[in-house]
């Protein structure tokens, strides 16, 4: 029986292995406006094993993670101290970018203004029809997208039931005309809207996120890229083969793991399906959450929504 995640599912927190935690925390504070929330073990809070979202954290291992988030205390991004980890190889699967979403066009404009004040060089600015986005990299080379969604009534459905997306130039000066004072903090409604990955085999990874995790293919760009989502969002996971990655993800600097946050019913269905051998990957139960690896070894943590 085909399983589909509900539209209430989405991306939770994302963790990056980094060499210079202090430098990276400073960058994300100044350039993106994320607040430093504290340090914990793995995905756990430093004090009681829970985070400010009310989810129980993962206390396996001894990784020290510095948490960054919005001004109201919601964690978005974890910086895992990994000074001894090697840099990600040029052929290694992993992260293309983390996409931080803000709820309004004004908040996006203020975010771009903040990036400019911090002296961050943009690598792109695009109108994707469903969203408007700017792109850059952090000091350790991790891709970063800052975006806002257009209203859903403006999205155009495709004949196959997907959504039309494109990459058109974004008029930054028009965007910035709507900016107020950027201040020093990101909009409190910011979250991680999606993660974009670089797999070694596009069809195999599409199969995992579609058939095993229950996402819908929303857009497919030939043999080069695919965008999948829970429900009818434009995408929660992007996949591309533009850089022809050929080696599985390792314990190198870069993406450590990301969360797929799902409602309780979906979590139980996924646990039953995956534990029954849908992927052949081992699960690591941890209270109400568990972890599975995608075909390239990228760690996906299934957590309560």
Summarize the structure.
With 305 residues, the chain is α+β, with helices and mostly antiparallel strands.
Model description:
This protein is α+β, with helices and mostly antiparallel strands and 305 residues long. It has a single domain, classed as 2,3-Dihydroxybiphenyl 1,2-Dioxygenase, domain 1 (Roll). The chain contains five helices and 16 strands. The strands form two sheets. A nine-stranded mixed sheet has the order 9-6-7-8-5-10-13-12-11, with helices on one face. Strands 2-3-4-1-14-16-15 form a seven-stranded mixed sheet. The radius of gyration is 18 Å and the shape is globular. It starts with 9 loop residues before the first strand and ends with a strand. About 7% of the residues have low confidence.
Number of strands: 16
Q: Which band does the percent of strand residues land in?
A: 25-35%
Radius of gyration: 18 Å
* CATH fold field value: 2,3-Dihydroxybiphenyl 1,2-Dioxygenase, domain 1
Major sheet, described briefly? 9 strands, mixed
Number of helices: 5
Number of domains: 1
State the distance separating the first and last CA atoms: 24 Å
The helix/strand order is: EHEEEEHEEEEHEHEEEEHEE
Question: What is the molecular shape?
Answer: globular
Q: Strand order across the biggest sheet?
A: 9-6-7-8-5-10-13-12-11
The amount of helix comes to: 10-25%
Structural class: alpha+beta
Low-confidence blocks of residues: 43-62
